[in-house]
Amino acid sequence: EKGGYEHFMLKEIHEQAFTVRDCMRGRIYPNEGKIQLGGLKDFDEKLKTANRIIIIACGTSWHAGLVGEYLIEEYARIPVEVEYASEFRYRNPIISENDIVMAISQSGETADTLAALEIAKERGATIFGICNVAGSSITRFTDAGVYTHAGPEIGVASTKAFTAQVTVLTLIAFYIAQLKEKIKPDAMKVLLTELDSIPDLIKECLKTEEATKYIAQDIKDINNSLYLGRGIGFPIALEGALKLKEISYIHAEGYPAAEMKHGPIALIDEGFPVIVIATKSSSYEKVVSNIQEVKARKGKVIAIVTKGDVDVRKSADFVIEIPDADDTFLPLLATIPLQLLAYHVALLRGCNVDQPRNLAKSVTVE
Ligand code: M6R
């Protein structure tokens, strides 16, 4: 049942080229530059006129929500807020009938997320779900939704469910943009063609496993680490840090790279590991200078870079190359080596990768 892999988590990491493909199946038509989301089509008018989208979730699903914020604001031009379900529900939130509240949940059973939806519904919002488990409580409670179709996820640390959530959010961003005519048909063709190629690029990313094994040997005995990213790379830094902390019990903090100078830089001394998402993007130069700041304090830099990169290589201790792609799709690629790195570090530390201590797959307590 583990398909020849040592752990479910490793199997699920390796499945991602297929799960992302499954998630897009029947939904994107690159040649026509069209996108179709059956689950939302009765709500097209609502999506066109919504004032605001509020995304609620916990843990990894909340990180997917942050990616969604970036993509929906960028393409659909609707303001998005991303909330921890547990904070939202206890805060007397201001919600109107023109708001769409979207819950993201792999299990569809997370108690805080469900309770947050109940409040949103009571206050008249339209509520959507992005879930993996068919027929789960959240799917039954919501007005509409989009399934992630990642198949059962057994490893407690979420991997393929995350990339499927990000895929769905990418589809939703493009779908609303299509409805609101924010993306021209030709531009949509280009975007969907690139999205269609992402499963193949994920396969390329899986080839970083050897590099991550090698780096894991080097960092397996650390106690602390910092993950940095900017823009759409920031939620990826958060997710990479969460993976490491969940399964290897190493303290890992994700931070927006530019915030480093406002505090975390004080942590950096000789050998302090900093994992940086430093792929080619509009903020590349800035990230390169963040790396130099870490190196000036003798920290150890592990950088995720775009294939063929030369600048980062000059200063980083380790580089992990991923294929070039538009920033829009970075989360689907850069996440893969971070999952593999966490897995191999945890393995070397003799941790129970599939069932980390103190954690449950679905958190039904409040
Ligand atoms: O089932 P959900 O997506 O609602 O679960 C939310 C979190 O409990 C979950 O993502 C948790 O953070 C995972 N252990 C992350 O790997």
Automatic annotation (TrEMBL):
The chain holds residues 247 to 612 of 612 of the full protein. The active site is at 361 (for fru-6p isomerization activity). One of its GO terms (cellular component) is cytosol. Catalyzes the first step in hexosamine metabolism, converting fructose-6P into glucosamine-6P using glutamine as a nitrogen source. It is found in: Cytoplasm. Its EC number is 2.6.1.16. This is Glutamine--fructose-6-phosphate aminotransferase [isomerizing]. Residues 43-182, 215-356 form the SIS domain. Keywords: Aminotransferase, Cytoplasm, Glutamine amidotransferase, Repeat, Transferase.
